[in-house]
């Protein structure tokens, strides 16, 4: 596996300093959200091949892969104008992804509310159909530019379960649609004890469509799931990597919401599984 980090989980700093920081920590890849990651303004309409090349060159000099170009927007925003703006913003990233040296632009599947919060209103049929409509539009654009739309499902969104992921993939039948797999995103206080069954369904149904994995962990506190450092929580990484290692060589595993004080221990934990990937 190739362990990386979301660039905006590090301190905001000049581009070259950010890339050096990532490389110094022994990380080999990054999920990059240009608008969040460094002191270069990238408002809508500002991306150009020249700017993307400048950023990509800085990462190449340090041998750090831009694994995902992050453009996390609400693709089913309840305000039609805001939704159109979000889709336009995402398409801008698709058009320039190759200039960044990256083949994947990632987002979640939105929310029926303007803010991304947990609500069971997301689990109705209408929001799922709205997601399918938006994703279909984005994938059509991705096909024109030879890049991938990476969708990250989870319980805060209308694509919240392995079964709804399958429905999305069946409805938007294109190899330019792939999955950013964050296992924790499928877990709740009510189902975490069945995580192997949930993950088995996901991996058996659409594991071949996983392009990138996010890594985080959870613990139980006050009757709810709370964040934990990777390897210090309840997530069954051994089960996940037993399936992934022989099927996904050099998988980009991006640390999500990692606390930098935990980074060395988290990387040591994940590196225990490297021999399983290295056998390939």
Structural description of this entry:
Helix 4 packs parallel to helix 5 and helix 6 packs parallel to helix 7. The N and C termini lie close together (11 Å). With 280 residues, this protein is an alpha/beta fold. The mean pLDDT is 96.
SSE layout and pairings?
Elements: E1 2-6, H1 15-24, E2 29-32, H2 34-37, H3 49-61, E3 65-70, H4 80-96, E4 104-108, H5 125-145, E5 148-152, H6 162-171, E6 177-181, H7 195-206, E7 210-215, E8 217-221, E9 224-228, H8 237-244, E10 252-255, H9 263-271, H10 274-278
Distance from first to last alpha carbon: 11 Å
Q: Got a strand count?
A: 10
Task: Give start-end ranges of low-pLDDT stretches.
Answer: none
Percent in helix? 25-40%
Structural class: alpha/beta
Largest sheet, spatial ordering of strands: 1-2-3-4-5-6-7-10
Write out key terms for the chains shown.
single chain, alpha/beta, 8-stranded parallel β-barrel, 39% helix
How would you briefly describe this protein structure?
With 280 residues, the chain is α/β, with parallel strands linked by helices. It has helices at 15-24, 34-37, 49-61, 80-96, 125-145, 162-171, 195-206, 237-244, 263-271, 274-278; strands spanning 2-6, 29-32, 65-70, 104-108, 148-152, 177-181, 210-215, 217-221, 224-228, 252-255.
